[in-house]
Amino acid sequence: MKMKNYKASAKQITDSRQLLQNQYAHQNDDGEFDGVVMVPVENSSKRYQQKNLCALSQHERIKCKARELQKNIWNNRKELWPGNIPDNPIQLLDPRIAIQFIGYKYDQPECLGEFSGNGATGEIAGVIDRSAKQISISRRLSPQIRRFTAAHELGHAILHKEMLMHRDRPIDGSVKTREPMELEADKFASYFLMPEKLIRERFRMNFGVTSAFVLTDDTAFALDPTNPEGLINRCKTLRNLSKILAKAEQYNVRHVYSMANQFGVSVEAMAIRLEELQLVKI
Question: Residue 189 and residue 278: Cα distance in Å, rounded?
Answer without folding.
Answer: 19
